[in-house]
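quick one: S-adenosylmethionine bound model?
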Amino acid sequence: MRSGPGVMGSGYGRHSAAQHVGIGTALGMLDRAVAALPLPDDGRALRVADLGCASGGNALEPMARVVAGARGRAPGIAVAVTHTDIRGNDFNALVETLAAPDAYPAAPGVFAYAEARSFFSPLFPPGELHLAWSSIAVHWLSHVPQPIPDHVYCSGATGAVREALRERSAADWRDFLRHRAVELAPGGRLVVVGGAATDEGASGAEGLFGMVVEELRARIEDGQLSSDRFAAMTVPTWNRTSAEFLDPLRRGPASDWYRLEEEAFAVLPDPLHDRYGRDGDLDAYAREVTASFMAAFGPSLFPTTEAPGGADGPSGAADELVRDFRSGLTARIRAHPADARTNWRVQLLRAARTDTPSRR
Ligand SMILES: C[S@@+](CC[C@H](N)C(=O)[O-])C[C@H]1O[C@@H](n2cnc3c(N)ncnc32)[C@H](O)[C@@H]1O
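yep, here:
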């Protein structure tokens, strides 16, 4: 498996309960999209994309519902789903997920494929897609325009660095919408649930990321992490406000290509903190928050190199840094469990591809 900025760690499938909750909020919109889209009536398959799939576990339920919804309208219709992600993603884990006997591709006439290319680039031939779904993925940026020097997370960015992230995010979102507009057939639907922020820029994870930064500073004091490397550490995400998500669909070029049908802004419960509230198991809570953090953001903060003695120097030192960071973060969460509580904001949207002559 390759690793690097933006990809999920190998534990993502087991440690993505918060993302799972986010997807749950969008399933109704997905059902309504399937109910509304024009289905092929000439024997061709319904073509679906799952954009930013990671190891696929959180795609199983949405894609099973797409199959059920489409077959409720057109019994036996063939369904072809392409799961896409960037090249560093663990596609072997995706293949294993999709091969499970109870996974949606086990149904006759249902086909699953994988594509290793960024969703900020073209992914499908023009007009081929009927439905594009993306969950908890479009807030990952194509690249970091400038590292955040004294923090690692977008809500800690200020001044020109903050503006550069905001601009990168706007350009990426325009690219995403433009490419999907080319690929969706007229009447095709786009359903997105994406990491979002309030108008003040709060994503809901500020407390946890504050602890992360404190722990990284402790690693600097211990001589395990250089100040220069800390200054370059940046999670490549920007959680858009509702306006940043929706304005391009309401005005500007994308409003010619799409009709915004539904949208909602949601504050998600924190399933890990809620479980801790029920069972009082502080050790398990602290361990699971750290594991979930590392699964989602570890590869971005601690990218590994396959060459021995690469950017991290001898791999033993890199392992030690990650090990001590993990145990230090776990101790901080244990000491201040309420501060680690994370109520992610998400933006949900459903849009229809309009039938316009201009496809660009
Ligand atoms: C938090 S995971 C979400 C995975 C899954 N959709 C879910 O709901 O659990 C974000 C995924 O987006 C992927 N991703 C980030 N940037 C991407 C890009 N430019 N193109 C495609 N996938 C991307 C990451 O590699 C990761 O697998």
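The first helix runs from residue 17 to 36.
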